Amino acid sequence: MQECEEVQCPYCGQGMELMIDTTIAQQRFTTDCEVCCRPFEVFAECEPGEIISLEVQA
User: Fold this and answer.
1) Whole-angstrom distance, CA of residue 56 vs CA of residue 48
2) Beta-carbon neighbour count of residue 46 at 10 Å?
3) What CA–CA distance (Å, rounded) separates 41 from 43?
4) What secondary structure does DSSP assign to 9-57, as a single string?
5) By three-state DSSP, how is residue 8 classified?
6) Buried b / exposed e across 5-44, counting CB within 10 Å, b at 16+?
7) What is the C-alpha R_g of the chain?
8) Which residues contact 13 (CB under 8 A, 6 or more apart)?
9) Is the pTM of this model over 0.90?
10) Chain mean position to CA 49
11) Are the beta carbons of 42 and 7 closer than 8 angstroms?
12) Which of 4, 13, 31, 45 sits in a 20 to 30 Å window from 21, CA-based?
């Protein structure tokens, strides 16, 4: 089950939506900002159907 969550780029502050697979309890991945193209890490803790915490880090 996927949930959409709004995050902000830690570099330029641009808001963007990320799709998070909530069937994975803990996940860590890198994605690129849609505006400044710089990569940042995303840390998510989930329960099926729910995002418990979501953090972005430069």
Assistant:
1) 21
2) 20
3) 7
4) -TTT--EEEEEEETTSSEEEEEEE-TTT--EEEEEEEEETTEEEEEEEE
5) strand
6) eebebeeeeeeeebebebeeeeeeeeeebeeeeeebebeb
7) 11
8) none
9) no
10) 15
11) yes
12) 13
- What token pair was written down for 2? 């996927």
- Write down the residue that tokens 């799709």 correspond to: 19
What letter does residue 3 receive in the DSSP assignment?
E
Which tens digits make up the pLDDT trace of 1-58? Answer: 999 999 999 999 999 999 999 999 999 999 999 999 999 999 999 999 999 999 999 9
